[in-house]
Design goal:
elongated, alpha+beta, DNA-binding, 7 helices, four-stranded antiparallel beta sheet, homodimer
Chain lengths: 222, 222
DNA sequence: CGCTGAATTGACGGACATCAAGATGTGTGG
DNA sequence: CCACACATCTTGATGTCCGTCAATTCAGCG
């Protein structure tokens, strides 16, 4: 309800009720907390890129549409992650809530202004950007591998990011995974089944995956 | 001669004779000029990432090796471009000279030190990093397209970067192009000939390409 | 002029996309 | 609480783009 109501307003129009409710994140980001319902748009292409975001809870996807209608998901952002780095003053990608999401939103200009005298804030920002750069580079390596390698790598990545126990909950759909890995939904599904048949994983539900043979999975990652 | 001699010494060991020969680049980078012969290594994986580089002349490629022996070229850097941004303190990629290259080399720590009081140097660095981020994102979009789209996009990219006349000189081999686009050398070659047969380009030599139908090329880029 | 690496061209096969149908899961209203 | 509707996921059959293997041509250089 509340989430849905908040979601219809992009953060560019919404304004926090009082600055006293602003929270401070682990990266020194002071910002307004906001909520977005499942599949709500957080920002869109061609909008001014005026904000930085930190995920409090939930998962965010960013993507770009290709002219032929295909969708390439560039990243999934999990709690703690910061996103919204854009080189230009308009967004080149769209951000959406994969499930219900709470974010910390901060104006970019206010961060850069503060970075002028807080020297280590500037270097933290630079570091975050370079981490993001590294992540994208890593991801582009994935896109030239085989379908099995991509899916195995994806599972390992996800396990590593959510306090990797022996089982993980996937918040995103098969279509999301496919668009992230540059595959089709069918190929992703088939690969999952194949992993299950060979005893590498168990599909407790479609979205809940148990790791039965971590070594085999690492080998498949190549 | 001189180039080859300089190339055997990585910049981490070489030291500029006198700081008075240091030059100032367009990005405020003050650094030592260095030369590298064709195919010489500028820096390697697992070496400490202590330097930033600006291309004065020539072309540089950066790549990462996959476990199966394949090579993924992440970028070609042309005169004016700055490279060497690494999130970790060791390099994750290798940089090599595509042809004979002259570079400006600057210690990273000296840049960050100067950025502490020169506020706009810090923001320039951040901007450069975000540009690089954007470039990598763009490139990862390429990797999910068809072979024709990748090659067309590559030609357009290259034309745009070297004062795009109606013809361009490709400094890199077909293998380099293939490893950049995630294709095989045969597919790249076949696509070139196909473009030539359909009158989109003309192969004046294998490395010199004339654009005969820019509109068609843009259409092929998708 | 022959040698060597780079580029081209051809034949073939395989991995993944596409098309199509069926199974499973989920939310909603009676 | 059940039943229906709709979305998501799975499974199967078929096609195609591009990788692989192999041979030939071309360009640069002693």
């Amino acid at each position: 309800m509340l989430a849905a109501a908040a979601a219809v307003n992009s953060p560019h129009h919404a304004r926090p009720l009082r600055s006293s409710i602003a929270s401070e994140g682990p990266f020194g980001m002071i910002g307004a907390p906001m909520r977005f319902a499942r599949n709500a748009e957080i920002y869109g292409e061609d909008e001014p890129a005026d904000f930085l975001y930190q995920v409090i809870s939930g998962v965010v996807r960013t993507y770009r549409m290709l002219d032929d209608g295909r969708r390439q998901i560039g990243a999934f952002y999990l709690p703690g992650d910061v996103f919204g780095f854009e080189a230009t003053d308009v967004n080149l990608s769209t951000a959406e809530a994969v499930n219900d999401v709470r974010l910390l939103v901060v104006k970019r200009s206010s961060v850069t202004a503060r970075a002028e005298h807080e020297r280590d804030l500037a270097s933290r920002l630079w570091m975050l950007t370079m981490r993001e750069l590294q992540r994208v580079q890593q991801h582009s390596l994935v896109l030239i591998k085989s379908a099995e390698e991509r899916v195995a790598g994806f599972l390992i990545e996800m396990a590593g990011r959510q306090s990797g126990q022996s089982a993980i909950e996937l918040p995103m759909s098969r279509q999301d995974i496919a668009d992230y890995l540059g595959l089709t939904i069918e190929t992703v599904s088939r690969t999952f089944t194949h992993f299950a048949q060979t005893g590498v994983i168990a599909l407790e539900t479609a979205r809940r995956i148990r790791f039965c043979n971590r070594a085999a999975l690492n080998r498949l990652d190549a």
